[in-house]
Amino acid sequence: MSKNNKIFIFIAIVIISLAGGVAGGILVRSYFLNSSFNVPLFGDINVGGQYRDGNLVISSPKKVVVEQNDRIAAVTADVQKSLVDFYKKKTASAATDKDTPVDIRATLASFYSQPERLGWGLVLTNDGWILTTLNSVKAGGTVVAASDGTFFEVEKNIADKQSGYSFVKVNATNLVAAQFSGKNDITDGQIIIGLAEDGVAISHVRQAHGDAGGVGVRSSELVYETITVDDETLALGTVMVGLDGTVAGFYHGQGLVVPMYQYAWLLPGLLSNGAVRRPYLGVRYLNLYEFIGPEKLKGALITKDARGVSVAKGSPAATAGLAEDDVITAVDGRAVTADDTLSGLIVSHRPGDEVELTIVREAKEQRVTLTLGTAE
C-alpha cells in the first residue's frame, strides 16, 4: 500500500470518527434537552440546533447556550415555588408571652418555630389545596409557610386512606400551583429530578408505566400504577420532577414513584365536595396478560378473591349484571392492557360517570353501560 493511500485511509478514519462523535452528541443532547441541544466541537464553540417537524435544523456556531445543568437548576427553582413547609403551631401563651416583642406577637409567624418544622407539601391549587405525605397535620394546630414567606393556618385536613397522604386546605388566593405530568408525559430512560429536603438528586426513569400490584387478584378500586426510577436511595416523599418542569409524583421507596396524575383525578371531587371520592365499580379481577401474554389475550378476568368475592353485592357491577368469568376487555372503547389496567381506566373517571364496558362472556362480545358509584 502506497504512502498516499495510507494517508487517505487515515484521514477518512478521522473524518468518520468526528462525524460519529457529532451524531452521538446530537442524539445525547437532544434526548436530554428535548428539542434544543448543543454539540461540542472545538473548545467552547458549539453548534446549536433544534428538531422542527421531525427535521434537524443546525444554526450557526455559537457559544454555549443551554446546558443540562442549567435546565435542571431552572426547573428546580421553578418547582420550589410550589413547595410549602409545615410547622407545628405554638400554644397561645407562647404568642402572648410578655417577653415576646409586640411586633412578633402580632404576626402569624409567632405561632411557629424552626425546631418544630414537620415537613413539606406540594401546592395543588392557587386557592390553598396542598398535598403532603405527612400524617401529623392538624387543622388549627399547624401553619403553612409559602415560598414567598407568607403564612397560613391549616383549616382542613382530609386523609386519603388508600395512599396515606393528606389533602390540606389553607385560606389562600395566590399560591403557586404545581404543574403535573400526564400519564404519557413520562418515558423510559428520561432524566428525572428528585427534590428532597436535603438537596437535589438526579435519577433516570427505568419504567414509565409500572405495576406494583404483582400477580394475583386485584380490586377495581385500588390503583397499582407506578413509575420506577433507578435510584433507590431517595428519601421517602421526595418530589420527582421531569425536565419539562412538571411534577411526576412522590417517591414511595424501593425505586417506586406514585404518579401525580392519580391525585389530579381526585381534585374535581375534592374541590366540589371537600372529600376524597373515588369511582366505584365493585369487581375483583386477574390481568390476563400476566398469565397468557399480551400478544394472545388482553383484558381483566372477573374472579373470586381470598374472601370468595368476585362481584361486590349492591355494586354498580352487580346492578349491571356482571358476573364471575366475564372478561372486561375495554372501558369506553379503550382496551384493557398492561399499560391501561382496569383499575387505572376506572379511577380516571369520576363517581357518577356513565361508562361503557366491553365484555366477553362465553366467547361472545357484549357491551354493558353502567354508572360508577362512590368509594370514599
UniProtKB/TrEMBL annotation:
Domain (PDZ) ranges: 279-363
Family named by the database record: Belongs to the peptidase S1C family.
Keyword annotations: Membrane, Transmembrane, Transmembrane helix
InterPro entries: PDZ, PDZ_sf, Peptidase_S1_PA
Transmembrane segments: 7-32
UniProt name for this protein: PDZ domain-containing protein
Family matches, as SMART domains: PDZ
Xref: Pfam families: PDZ_2
Organism: Candidatus Falkowbacteria bacterium RIFOXYA2_FULL_47_9
CDD domains linked to this entry: cpPDZ_Deg_HtrA-like
Keyword Cell inner membrane listed: no
Keyword Transmembrane helix tagged: yes
Domain of life assignment: Bacteria
